[in-house]
Design brief:
198 residues; two-stranded parallel ribbon; 34% helix
Length: 198
């Protein structure tokens, strides 16, 4: 099968495209399906870039937005529960406000002849997935001016069967012992880093 042409590489602002469906297979993991297109404007998730979302429309104008079976309905509901958490998190970051700050500082530095360091927001993720759950570990890096950047470690655990997020301690026989062990390990690693940098 041919590779999908990545229209977004030639034009990052392109939002519409006509394409041909090359393949479609069921996905037993989600109860839905996977498709391959001749070309796409949808940018995949990776390197801190969240995946694009949109609508596929058939030649007769029918939008592929509704589930065709109870299993697809359940899969879409779980996907929406998962995606809404990320939308809420991303929305809380005040991206528009940060963009405005960057534009103001760039204009000021340009007028005054000073150097300007571009603002940076990055989210790098690694994913572990089984038939029952998805676990995401993320490192959020931000530089929005000032003396130094900030790095925040994040994690999300999602039950694919219930469509709910969960705390990792519920996987242990004794949640408190698990949390205590995690705390002790974090302290041990911090102590090791302190010794390395002395």
């Amino acid at each position: 099968m041919q590779c999908t042409e990545k229209y977004f590489e030639a034009d990052a602002f392109r939002t519409r495209a006509e394409s041909v469906l090359l393949a479609a297979v069921p996905d037993s993991r989600t109860g839905g399906g996977l498709i391959a297109l001749e070309g796409t404007v949808f940018y995949p998730e990776g390197g801190g870039q969240p995946a694009d979302r949109g609508t596929l429309t058939l030649p007769d104008g029918t939008a592929l937005t509704e589930a065709a079976s109870p299993a697809e309905t359940a899969a879409l509901e779980r996907a929406e529960a998962f995606n809404s958490r990320f939308r809420d998190w991303a929305g809380a970051d005040g991206f528009d406000e940060v963009t405005a700050w960057a534009e103001e500082e760039l204009a000021f530095r340009t007028e005054s002849g000073g150097n300007w360091t571009p603002y940076t927001l990055e989210l790098d993720c690694s994913v572990y997935q089984t038939e029952q759950m998805v676990c995401i570990q993320a490192e959020y890096y931000s530089y929005t001016g000032g003396a130094h950047p900030n790095t925040v470690l994040l994690a999300w655990n999602f039950d694919l069967m219930t469509g709910q997020f969960f705390a990792p301690e519920i996987l242990a026989a004794d949640g408190q012992i698990f949390l205590d062990a995690v705390r002790d390990e974090i302290i041990r690693q911090i102590d090791m880093l302190s010794l390395i940098h002395i």
